[in-house]
Design a protein that fits this description.
The chain contains 10 helices and 14 strands. It has about 350 residues and is α+β, with helices and mostly antiparallel strands. The strands form 3 sheets. The protein has an 8-stranded mixed β-sheet. It is globular and about 50 Å long.
Length: about 350
């Protein structure tokens, strides 16, 4: 593949200092939060990225989910359009509909969005007043997707609870600090397909996913073997985050960055697929209950600091970011502008 002399997506190899590999077996098997929490906090204070191994999720659950995702994206455009993405961020996002802030062009990726299958009575009662409290848009013509993805989604959310329990201890709180705010969590799941980067994509400096920070609290990402994830390190150099067998890549998102008054790092990352193969990934953005208010004063160690961010409510903040990044909202915006005239 020919690329410009000044490679717009150049990245250096990574090191354990940039993106550490953290063994969480003691957390999974024995509930050990203190030692694991120290390691997670150290990573969250650096690039905000880390790998976790010995996570305890059955490999067969993961393999079935990967296969189901691949099979879904192999359906025709007309079939996938039957579950086209809605303004509650569920369903299939077609190519060209992701335009991340600051990018030169649209992203190459396709996405299938999911969320919680059920809500608590308290949260469900607010579905008409708070965004993103909605039902999933599973394709009834392709039931294998729901059957394979839900076990994966539930397993990763349970893993998210455990990782956050250790991180809470690292932050000087009780292990149930996050759990109290995750009674009916807004776990936002994505199945993501990245086609091969073409000569035309390279000429337009188009990424699979342009440089961005994640919107939520904690991301748990399963990436396939093709690579392409790149992270900005503390020296503001792009580095590769290559796939490591049987691990998840985790990173801190904007809401936790705000929640800790900028103490923890929500870092920029991007994806470019130059592998020559189709690339697939499955991130879960593990966020609190939709109606939780994010306020750094929740953390005892930070409560005396000057405020750097206004309080925000989880679902409203995520929805505001979605509306800037994805184009399914554009027709709604245009209609509102027409009505206002």
């Amino acid at each position: 593949m020919s690329i410009a002399p000044q490679d717009f997506a150049k990245a250096n190899s990574t090191s354990k200092e940039d993106i550490p590999l953290i063994d969480i077996a003691a957390l999974i098997e024995h509930g050990e939060t203190e030692l694991v929490g120290e390691k997670l906090l150290s990573a969250a204070l650096n690039t905000g990225f880390f790998y976790i191994e010995n996570h305890g999720i059955d490999p067969q659950i993961i393999e079935r989910a990967i296969t189901a995702s691949q099979n879904f994206f192999n359906l025709t455009k007309e079939e996938k359009q039957r579950v086209a993405v809605n303004q509650q961020q569920r369903g299939w996002l077609a190519p060209g509909m992701a335009n991340l802030e600051g990018s030169k062009t649209h992203d190459l990726k396709e996405i299938f969005f999911i969320g919680p299958e059920t809500w608590s009575k308290k949260i469900d009662a607010q579905r008409h007043s708070i965004p993103l409290i909605t039902d999933n848009l599973w394709p009834d013509f392709h039931p294998q997707l729901r059957e394979a993805i839900l076990p994966y989604y539930n397993a990763v959310c349970e893993l998210g609870h455990k990782v956050l329990s250790a991180l809470a201890v690292g932050l000087g709180e009780q292990s149930d600090f996050f759990k109290q705010r995750y009674q009916s969590p807004l776990g936002r799941g994505q199945l993501v397909y990245y086609p091969r980067s073409s000569d035309e994509d390279e000429a337009q400096e188009r990424f699979g996913a342009a440089s961005h920070t994640d919107f939520g609290v904690l991301t748990l990402l399963l990436q396939d073997h093709n690579g392409g994830l790149q992270v900005l390190n503390k020296q503001e150099e792009w580095i590769e985050a290559p796939p490591i067998e049987n691990t998840f890549v985790c990173n801190i998102g904007d809401l936790l960055h705000r929640w800790t008054n900028d103490y923890l790092c929500s870092n920029f990352h991007r994806v470019i697929n130059r592998s020559g193969n189709e690339r697939f990934s499955m991130p879960i953005f593990f966020d609190p209950d939709p109606d939780v208010t994010i306020d750094y004063k929740d953390f005892k160690m930070l409560a005396d600091q000057p405020r750097r961010h206004e309080k925000v409510r989880v679902a409203e903040y995520i929805d505001s970011k979605n509306r800037k990044a994805f184009t399914q909202y554009d027709d709604h915006k245009k209609n509102k502008q027409i009505l206002a005239k």
